[in-house]
Design brief:
single chain, seven-stranded mixed sheet, 212 residues, 6 helices, alpha+beta, 45% helix
Length: 212
């Protein structure tokens, strides 16, 4: 892409026509649950709702004044307010050029350093190999296989549930696991030592009684 300037910024209502074009690209439709019948006016209403929704955070990649990629993090509420639901799409003409990586970096920075989210998760169709590789590069793991999750091109398609935990939580869980394993490993030894100590103390007491 040479020296072309790429900007990542929050979504605006003025991006409606670009987002409408992006979401009607053949590859984007094939890799998402979007419908080709969604009109420009419907997208305008959707974007207006997104912008004023405090739980939704949407960024776009702007190239030569045009929005060509989009990522959204939707934050849970109540007991799920530590979770973010991630969705992303890149214009067909600009796929494979690193824009997806830039959007993922933006979403993860937002989740880890600004929203303090513990978990990011997403759905991805099982035949979307490029997207799956990208997500795995950012430490997303497959947690489940969802059968017949969507109807696409005349057939039902399965999807994977993938998720990523924040580094702080991963480190905390690793330390907890290590502590538990250490405790379990030392358990029999400590029990034996305690038993031996008790037996020795009881023996001394019995000896004292006998001498008395």
């Amino acid at each position: 892409m040479g020296q072309t300037r790429i900007t990542i910024r929050p979504l605006r209502v003025a991006d409606t026509e670009d987002i409408y074009e992006l979401t009607h690209m053949p590859n984007v439709l094939w890799g998402t649950s979007l419908l080709p019948s969604t009109t420009l006016e419907e997208w305008r209403q959707i974007i207006e709702q997104w912008i004023y929704d405090k739980r939704r955070h949407t960024f776009i990649t702007e190239l030569q004044g045009k929005a060509v990629g989009m990522v959204s993090v939707y934050v849970g509420e109540g007991r799920s307010q530590h979770i973010g639901d991630l969705a992303m799409a890149v214009h067909d003409k600009f796929q494979g050029q690193g824009l997806g990586k830039m959007l993922m970096l933006t979403a993860i920075d937002l989740a880890d350093n600004w929203l303090n989210l513990v978990r990011l998760h997403l759905d991805v169709y099982i035949d979307n190999e490029r997207a799956i590789r990208l997500y795995k590069n950012f430490d997303f793991e497959i947690e489940g296989h969802i059968r017949c999750s969507a109807f696409r091109g005349g057939n039902y398609i399965d999807s994977y549930l993938m998720a990523r935990l924040s580094p702080k939580i991963m480190a905390s869980r690793a330390n907890a696991t290590q502590t538990k394993q250490t405790s379990t490993a030392n358990g029999p030894t400590n029990q034996a030592a305690n038993a031996a100590t008790t037996k020795s103390e009881n023996g001394s007491a019995e000896s004292s009684v006998a001498q008395t």
